[in-house]
Design goal:
mainly beta, 20-stranded antiparallel beta sheet
Length: 203
């Protein structure tokens, strides 16, 4: 028998032992408390909230609107919303966000952001502003903070576009083609050992 000094929330109207060996207690305030054999517990409140504390220390809080927050022993929290979106916050400060359409965004503690799309595309933005896009077909496009770009196709063709507008394309066979802002084009076949300047005759 509990003493009369016990808080109302700790007073049980009835206690039931379930088939699985757990105990279901109903408090005077309507709270239902289930105690599991492994030491875990679950509490259901009259306002629709539910809290479950597993034996390993994992805690799961559910709200009436369907939101679910899981807190792991290492401090990781995983919030699942009604629309299916999910946000995971790790102890190191990094965050993983999954949208209902399957887009996954990883925000690193160092400021790097990586976004993965269901169609296979991947975008990475580094802390310094460098942006790297990887397309479903394997093409890779890097945009640097100064606006210059590096475009690498699946066959290995690489095109560097500089801030001044100059473009240098390197083909898989080693041929280098430079297009200057003036429109002059210089082609260096694989057998050439130097890049022909735009003002000189290509030999």
């Amino acid at each position: 028998t509990l003493s009369s000094s016990s808080a109302a929330s700790d007073v049980y109207k009835r206690q039931t032992v379930l088939k699985d060996g757990s105990t279901l207690d109903v408090r005077d305030d309507g709270t239902r408390v289930q105690l599991f054999k492994d030491g875990g517990r679950a509490e259901e409140y009259t306002d629709g909230r539910r809290m479950q504390l597993n034996a390993d220390g994992t805690r799961i809080d559910s709200s009436p609107d369907g939101t679910r927050v899981q807190t792991n022993p290492d401090g990781t929290t995983i919030t699942t919303n009604v629309d299916g979106s999910q946000v995971q916050v790790n102890p190191d400060g990094s965050k993983v966000t999954t949208s209902p359409d399957g887009v996954v965004t990883l925000t690193g503690g160092d400021g790097m952001v990586v976004t993965k799309y269901p169609d296979g595309r991947r975008e990475q933005t580094n802390a310094d502003g460098t942006r790297i896009e990887t397309f479903a077909d394997g093409r890779r496009l890097q945009t640097n903070p100064n606006g210059s770009t590096i475009d690498i196709l699946t066959d290995g063709t690489r095109t560097d576009t500089f801030v001044d507008g100059k473009k240098v394309r390197a083909d898989p066979d080693g041929t280098r083609t430079t297009t200057f802002v003036s429109g002059t084009v210089s082609v260096k076949p694989v057998s050439y050992t130097h890049l022909t300047l735009p003002t000189k005759r290509i030999v």
